[in-house]
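Ticket 4471: requesting a sanity check on a complex prediction with NAP. Repro inputs:
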Amino acid sequence: MINKQQILKKRPVGLPDKETWELIESKIQELNDGEMLIAQEYISLDPAMRGWMNQTRSYIPPVELGDVMRAGSVGKVIKTKGKTLFQVGDYLSGWGGVQNFCITKGENFHKVDPSRSSLSSYIGILGMPGMTAYFGILEVGEIKEGDVVLVSGAAGAVGSIVGQIAKIKGCRVVGIAGGKSKCNYLTEKLGFDGAIDYKNENVAKGIKKYCPKGIDVYFDNVGGEILDSALIFLRKNARVVICGAISQYNSKSNIKGPENYLSLLVNRASMKGMVVFDFAPKYSIAMIEMAGWIKEGKLIHKEDIYHGIENFRETFLRLFSGEKMGKLILKI
Ligand SMILES: NC(=O)c1ccc[n+]([C@@H]2O[C@H](COP(=O)([O-])OP(=O)(O)OC[C@H]3O[C@@H](n4cnc5c(N)ncnc54)[C@H](OP(=O)(O)O)[C@@H]3O)[C@@H](O)[C@H]2O)c1
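Returned structure tokens:
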């Protein structure tokens, strides 16, 4: 059997280009004792992957040059050797990387049940993005009924769930997204109270219009100028959740910090960073509650699925152009 792998060849400066990864084909090696062969079915494409390609200190080490590109995935065990953590036929989610097949001992993989939810949902709403949204808005944002919540990247995998959870908890929710159709989706399908199209509208004016009394929680997925605009409208004791800063990930110069940070002082507000992996011991609690909300029709999730390992780069770039809706996934 032949494996196809996307190897990190060159660290990108700015957006990844044709030199960044190399697609290689090789024969699948024999398994060693304790190893399993997983046939990957879906690969998760996440903005964080861009950060993992930089040679900088972060919450996990960078992907080394020559290594398979790190990515979350879900697939089926098709072969084992000796005593293994999982068995042939098991479906697993974990760090399978951007490749068709993955050989692993199974640490950092967990079993998923395709009869309870679609396989792809385990890298979406019931996977890392869903967990980020759940713990980010509930535990870091500490929302309470009646709060005014503003979320950027609102039509994305994390943002769309953040907004819906805040609605379930009785908050007023306003989203920021790029383009009219995404904004319509937020208000018409997901029940947001307002949506600001940052590509065609002035964000500060939009926040003033939809949050006339200010913001209690700002869930930031994008950083940059949008973060700066949100800071102007903080209310007393507001919480700013720093989840991501996608507007800065491909920056060729230094990342731009917020100018309006003194609003934190004036409003006795806080700004806190979060990394989803810190909440791993509690993922199962979140999954049960979110599965319940999905069943009740309170939580809607959208997946945008593209095909083929060969199309990895073009598909990955959609995260930055915004040419996708909901969770971006590559099907093998
Ligand atoms: N801290 C953690 O543990 C953690 C975990 C998961 C994700 N994250 C972060 O959460 C954020 C959202 O991740 P996701 O998986 O949900 O991705 P996503 O929202 O599904 O995809 C990225 C979206 O970002 C928007 N975007 C791209 N460039 C932008 C720019 N310059 N300004 C404003 N918006 C821009 C695009 O939507 P538009 O069409 O609306 O522009 C795009 O669809 C990312 O920053 C990611 O790094 C953090």
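Notes from triage: The radius of gyration is 20 Å. Leaving this open until the requester confirms.
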